[in-house]
Amino acid sequence: MPAATGLSSSDPAPGAGGAPPPVPAEGGLLVPVDIGRARARVRFDTSTRQADVEATVELQLGEAPGRPLFDLRQEVDEVFLDEVRLPVEAVRHRATGAGEDARMRAVDVECEARSRHLLRLRYRLSRPAATGAEPLDWAPAGDGVRFDLWMSDLEPGRYLEMWLPANLCHDHFSLELDVEVAGTGRPHLLLANGEVEELGAGRSWAVRYPASYTSLSPMLVVAPADQVATARSEARCGARTLEVTVAALPEAAADVGAAAADTCAWLSYFGSRYGDWAHGDSFLAVLWGPGRGMEYDGATTASEAALEHEIFHSWFGRGVKPAGARDGWMDEAMATWATASSRATEARFASAELGLDETPLELRPWHPWARHTPREAYAGGARLLAGVAYQAGGAGHLRAALADWHRRFAGRAATSDDLCRHLSTWCGTDLRPWWDRYVEGGRTAG
Ligand SMILES: [Zn+2]
Question: Fewer beta carbons below 10 Å: N end or C end of the chain?
Answer without folding.
Answer: C
